[in-house]
Amino acid sequence: MGKAKIGVYWAASCGGCDCSLLEVNEQILDVAAAADILLWPCATDVKYADLESYKNGEIDIVLFNGAIRTAENREIAKLIRTKTKALVAFGSCAHTGGVIGLANLATRDEIFTTVYGEQRDGWPQVSASQNGYDLHLPEFLETLTPLAEVVEVDYVVPGCPPPREIVSQLFSALVAGELPPMGTVFASQKNLCEECPREREQEKITRILRPHQQEPDPEKCLLDQGFVCMGPATRGGCGAVCPAANMPCTGCAGPTESITDQGAAMLNTLASLVGTGEEGEDQLDAEDAILAQLDDIIGTFYRFGLATSLLRGRYHEQNRTAR
Amino acid sequence: MSKTVRHVSIDPITRLEGHGRIELFLDESGGLADAFFQIPELRGFERFCLGRQGEDMPQITERICGVCPEAHHFASTKTLDACYAAPPPPRAKKLREVLYNAYIFSDHLLHFYYLGGPDFLVGPYAPPQERNILGVIGKVGLELGKEVIKHRGYGQRIIELVGGRPIHPVSGIPGGQSKGITEEERTEIETMAASAVEFAQATLDVFKGKLLEDETFVRFASQESLALPTYYMGLVDKKGAVDFYDGDVRIVAPDGSEYAQVGASDVLALIEERTEPWTYVKIPYLKDVGWKGFTAGPDSGVYRVGPLARLNACKEIGTPLAQTEYEVFLDYFGGGPVHATFAYHWARLIEMLSAAERTAAFITDPTLMEGPLRAPLGEPGEGVGVIEAARGTLIHHYGLDDRGLIKSVNLVVATTHNVAAISLSIKEMAKAVVKDGNVDQGILNLVEMSFRNYDPCLACATHALPGQMPLIVDVRGTDGAVRQRIER
Amino acid sequence: MSDRTGPFEPKIVAFLCRWCSYAGADLAGVSRMEYPPNVVPMRVNCSGRVDVEMVLAAIEKGADGVLIGGCHPGDCHYVSGNYKTRRRVALIKRALSEIGIDPRRVHLEWISASEGHKFQQTITQFTQRIRDLGPSPVPAAAGAKVGGNG
Predict the structure, then answer these.
(1) What CATH number does the domain containing B110 carry?
(2) Which of A183, B153, C96, C98 is most buried, by CB atoms within 10 Å?
(3) C119, C21 in Cβ contact below 8 A?
(4) Are the beta carbons of C95 and A261 separated by less than 8 Å?
């Protein structure tokens, strides 16, 4: 049968997912013994020309991290799709667009103005000439998208980055030649609350706290205490390490199966929990005062999932006649 | 209209963090006419950080880089300490130092064995499929290979225990740390740190045995055209010793004399940036010296950061075992400052040892285990935080509104400072090795080896923000000549 | 999806709770009260059934405005569903503001079963409000740029 052929690629990425593959420590040697690595720009010298020369489907599986931000990301995603039998959206950016999906809050022109100044002629160009030589850059696309919007994806490994235990499971399956059915998501099917060790008492949130405003009780549920924790709307499988470190979950593993829009699901949860202890017409002002303690709805509820949310990014109202 | 005889692309460049491409143009004789280092990536953090909650910035900005997230996490956290006028209590500061030095150890280890080191550990002319960590393990043997993996694991484990997660830690908050460590964890870290010190020394032995005995390395390390007499920047403590976590920014000139020593909030005024239409990264240089093109020397504003620069900018290393190694290093090169770019590999390992020594020292400090983890916060305002990432000086600068939301954000990121020098190094190497039109993969790998010295992080590099820094933009015509200069 | 030729006619989705506001709508109907035809009514058992996702999905699918009708505070058939709705709508409006959609495109009104006239007024005023705001920026942006100040 011969060794399996695997690949790793990064699109608009931070490199953390590539590093997460090393978190399994010695298990990487088992992978190297069982598989040939046909692509991994971070760690090996395979170039795009080599990738192009592979036969269609020659690679058995590619772990693709990073979102589709430039024309090059899109082009290489399509190229990889033809060269591999199985394609994995690995990590939050490939899965839901990731933190960098927040860039959809601005247009390309706004981003370039912030980074390069207002003079458009001085901006990086798709084609430029320097000292008489033609140089090219890939186009920065107007909207950032996750991998599945460009090509068909066979597996998903969520997380920013995917945790060690999950990577280890994936590698074990690879080494044994026993990948689960296509469509499998390598994470818990349940939300984070199921594995979080904190005690939940389903108290009303009478005050919303930001993590630096108060030292949390280490045993009690963070939501109960008033910290906005994305746990109820987020897949588990990571061991709830952030709540264990006294910090609320920020939702990096994306939504559970039954949720379409992770931020919307969590906003529902918060709306249900916020209260004074009683409900009634005389409590409405107090409820409004609690809700007013929330800042930055998008950054809190859509931090990793803006690019795959229902409304995706920022809009501009054209007509301002209404008063 | 292009003038070119032959055009060769190295695409993508490999064994580094991030996306990059090298474009080589050959002349009629088959030698190098010109070379360009292009960074084709940009994600726009500077824009989408606006409006975010300040205390979320350590976790947002660390996603600039998953190889050096700790650098951004703590540059950001320190910036928030300043924004809230809340220096962390000793317990929190020491915890941060334990984590931070373990990160430096881990990141430098990664570079030597996984990224840049394989070129020499396996050999510069080895087949491409062997020029990687697996080839290294094949060459140095499984026993040492397992020690490599184990010790990188130690560095990551320490980060996890103190920071909550091994990649993208969460513990940094304004004025402190979100959690402490238990006595069991402290003991575990102490054992790992002691082993890390020994492993760092063993790695220096590997370096001396393999690289200093390698003809190619020695040739490149002594070749004049590959030595760039640039300015150097690094953080130093009150005694002028290397400090990764805190201190003043010291800049020395190519002759070693002090050019400037300033606090974090004053260093931004010393730097200016320019854009080029053929790369997404901006190019900083020392403003008062000026931009003279891609060239090095006392009259050129090009400067360098990172291990070699820190060793040039400091007066001493600050830890005993590393200090001994530093003296051997200086002796080899005939005194400092050391301009040989290939010396970065050696400097990095001296720092790896020093970082391990620091971790081992901090972890036995009794103030680590008692006392408050958080300082009381003042009203949100403006602040600057500076830290030495593995790859160089990293500065975050935020303005918070009265609700603690980001209204302004300024990032000057390690590898960005090195972009001009990297471009120069690539061109010098290409000039030296591209002859008679021979551009086989071995020759092209030699060209790549010139940038690997710097351990570049290109996802980081494309995130410097102009903010109040002056920005020079040359508007060019289609022939490449400058038509107009715009300054902001 | 949306036909934008000719003068702008708002498309409004109204989630109406069965016990109060939908009954109020029925009353307006049998009383032959006139009101603009721009509303697509969706009956739900309780306004509390309307979650954030439903409202955002309506906007994503082309609604220029979303109206939610519930029982007056204290009158909810299921006791407190309407209080939850009220808090959700507050959060929806905040989220919409942050992404550049005018929060006035989502509106919550308490309409009882006997308030046919109030139903008529609400629909008339809300339709005019949406007409003044213009088409939702969302369908206009579909397929083109998403983002920023244009």
Answers:
(1) 1.10.645.10
(2) C96
(3) yes
(4) no
Mutate to test the interface with A, among C80, C145, C149 (most CBs of A within 10 A): C145
User: Is B7 domain-assigned?
Assistant: no
pTM of the model: 0.94
Q: Is residue B11 part of a domain?
A: no
A with B: how many residue pairs have Cβ under 8 Å apart? Answer: 279
**Is residue A286 within 8 Å of residue C68, measured between CB atoms?**
no
Q: Is B249 exposed, middle or buried (0-12, 13-18, 19+ CB in 10 A)?
A: buried
Give the model's pLDDT for residue B474.
58
Interchain pair A211, B404: CB under 8 A: no
Chain B environment of A247 (Cβ under 8 Å): 164, 170-171, 173, 178
Q: Determine the residue of chain A that is closest to C95 in CA distance.
A: A297
Q: Is B146 touching A (CB cutoff 8 A)?
A: yes
Instruction: For residue A161, say if its preceding peptide bond is cis, omega within 30 degrees of 0.
Output: yes
Q: How far does the CA of residue B470 sit from the closest CA of chain A (Å)? A: 10
Is A219 in CB contact (< 8 Å) with chain B? no
By percentage, how much of chain B surpasses pLDDT 90? 88
Residue-wise pLDDT tens for chain B (488 aa)?
A: 445 579 999 999 999 999 999 999 999 999 999 999 999 999 999 999 999 999 999 999 999 999 999 999 999 999 999 999 999 999 999 999 999 999 999 999 999 999 999 999 999 889 999 999 999 999 999 999 999 999 999 999 999 999 999 999 999 999 999 999 999 999 999 999 999 999 999 999 999 999 999 999 999 999 999 999 999 999 999 999 999 999 999 999 999 999 999 998 898 899 998 999 999 988 999 999 999 999 999 999 999 999 999 999 999 999 999 999 999 999 999 999 999 999 999 999 999 999 999 999 999 999 999 999 999 999 999 999 999 999 999 999 999 999 999 999 989 899 999 999 999 999 999 999 999 999 999 999 999 999 999 999 988 888 744 444 445 555 554 455 565 665 54
CA distance B448 to B110: 18
Tokens of B142: 């499984």
A108, A267, A283 ranked by CB distance to C88: nearest: A267
Classified as helix, coil or strand, B477 is coil
The count of structural domains within chain B is: 1
Q: Of A288, A241, A233, A226, which Cα lies nearest the Cα of A262?
A: A233
- Measured between CA atoms, the residue of chain C closest to residue A142 is C145
Could you tell me the two tokens for B94? 């020491």
Residues 84-113 (A) with a CB less than 8 A from some CB of C: 104-110
Q: If you ran DSSP here, which 8-state letter would residue C71 be given? A: P
Give the C-alpha separation, B412 to B158, whole Å. 27
Q: What is the rounded CA–CA span in Å between residue B259 and residue B42?
A: 32
Q: Please choose, from the candidates B475, B417, B17, the residue with its C-alpha nearest in 3D space to the C-alpha of residue A128.
A: B475
B48:A29 CB<8 A: no
Amino acid at A264: A
Is-contact B304 B228, C-beta < 8 A?
Answer: yes
pLDDT tens digits along B178-222: 999 999 999 999 999 999 999 999 999 999 999 999 999 999 999
Q: Domain span at residue B424?
A: 45-476
* Residue B8, in any domain of the structure: no
DSSP letter at A211? Answer: T
Domains and CATH numbers, chain C: 12-139 (3.40.50)
Confidence of residue A202 (pLDDT cuts 50, 70, 90): confident
**CA A260/CA A266 separation, integer angstroms:** 11
Query: Does residue B16 belong to any structural domain of this protein?
Result: no
Report yes or no for ipTM above 0.90: yes
3-state secondary structure of A61: strand
Q: What is the pLDDT of residues B132-141, one digit of tens each?
A: 999 999 999 9
Structural domains of chain A ordered from first start: 4-100+141-176 (3.40.50.700), 192-308 (no CATH)
